[in-house]
Amino acid sequence: MEFNPIAYCCTVPFLLIGYMLVKQDQRHFICNLLAVSNLLLIGYSFFVMRQLLALYQLGERMGLPASAAYKNFDIVTIRLFLTVLLPFFFLLPKFRKQVWISWVMLFLLFWNNPLHTWNLSGVFTKVPVYLSLFFSGYALLWLLNQLPYQSRPQ
Questions:
Q1: What is the CA radius of gyration of the chain?
Q2: Are 101 and 86 in contact (CB under 8 A)?
């Protein structure tokens, strides 16, 4: 799951530029791809929540006071909170279609994971795994009739 933000930051800018460049009636496929990319960030949110829980448990075992962590509420905490919370909005079909929230997520992920912190070791095994996850997510949304521009039965 640590590769999800890297893949998101590498693919979504091209999708967003393509969304702006193509005609209005041809944006449906790109919007569907954006919806799948955004939905895959939910796995990354669970990954980050698990890391934060493990960090909290480590602090408890080392005997650090838990109240000290709650006093430091700064921009980094807000940024991390938004990075974890915003992908869950993509579960709602209304937000899946919105392009502006993809811009917000892209900005947050680039801000949270700058280029010099990307772990690209084993990238040739991570890319096929991400692609299979992406295609599985697209197929799942298609089967559930949840893609933004998919005809829904009346």
A1: 18
A2: yes
